[in-house]
Amino acid sequence: MSTDGDPGASAGSSEHRRFVARIYRMRILGLGTGCIAISGVLYENGASLLTWMALAFNGGIWPTVAYAIARGSRDPKQAEFRNLAIDSICGGIWIAVMQFNVVPSALLAVMLSADKIGVGGWRFLARTASVQALACLATWALLGFGFRPDTTMTQVLVCLPFMVAYPLAISTAAYALGRKVVRQNRMLDRLNRTDGLTGLPNRLHWEEAAVTELSRCSRTRRPAALLMFDIDNFKQINDSYGHPAGDEVLRRVAASLRASLRALDTPGRFGGDEFGVVLGDTDSRDAMDVAERLRATVAAIRIEGLPDLRCTISVGVAFIVPRLDSVNVWIRHADTALYRAKQTGRNRVCTSGASWE
Ligand SMILES: Nc1nc2c(ncn2[C@@H]2O[C@H](COP(=O)(O)OP(=O)(O)OP(=O)(O)O)[C@@H](O)[C@H]2O)c(=O)[nH]1
After folding, report:
1. ipTM above 0.90?
2. For this UniProt entry, which segments traverse the membrane (predicted)?
3. Cα 199 to Cα 189: distance, rounded to the nearest angstrom
4. pTM confidence score
5. Domain with CATH 3.30.70.270 in the chain
């Protein structure tokens, strides 16, 4: 009995073991309090010793047996789904044994249904509800179609723990699951926006920052600049020192970027050995200073164990110009300037020329 779990995860995974453990805890609570509710009816109806023993088994021993079955199974998820169907069958039998005593029978049916929806949705409920109904009908026929729907006050009172504790537990589990989903969505969103190697915003995220900056500039008429830079002869670094050394260079360049920029600026990895920086509220002179500083910082990078490794960057700078209404055009201007820096000897800063100021 549970509202929690991910039936879609792969068999045998730790997620499935957690799912089984959560169901175990819920089953102990649900069947424990549920059997107390049933006992009120059995007591007043003068049930046989065999019926009491069956109830004791269902409430006290079955949760642990079900847990052991699921834990020992090669496919814990499927095993647990079978156990949940058995829960429904038992529920159907108890409803008939109670001769449809209305309050505990309705409670049992509702709680068992909530479980099934929580774990496997309405389709799973439909499947288990049909076996529950069949088990109920068969038991009812076997016991001679007894029908005593009236519920006494004592029977209502012994239903209270089930009525209160179990829905609270279901809500708590649903809330915890909801929080987990929100956390995982946030993490996914962060991963989607981050370059795995450098930890910088990836191209998509970085371009969003550029769009935001461009529209802010159009509104406020404040200056801004875009830097695009590319590591010089990076292929040669990879070829001479190996790919892991190339990766380390990329990480160190990213670290230099993070260390030397303001919170207002947005660095990003554009792809391969190409990076971009959005410099918010920055005029052309300051932008050139930042670009030169970056160039010098990267040139000073030294990698432990590789004393000969040197890396430089070529930087293209594009300022906001009048009637610039597309980030793609802004990036193209910076790219053209970067191309010029490469063409004129690398390890230098070039600008796209035009500026507002
Ligand atoms: N180590 C490493 N290399 C990468 C990565 N992504 C791209 N590269 C390599 O980076 C190199 C980029 O080379 P290019 O930009 O074509 O040229 P370059 O050697 O930098 O020369 P210039 O740009 O003209 O100075 C290619 O060899 C890519 O395989 C990465 O994540 N890690």
Report:
1. yes
2. 24-43, 49-70, 91-112, 124-145, 157-177
3. 14
4. 0.64
5. 203-351
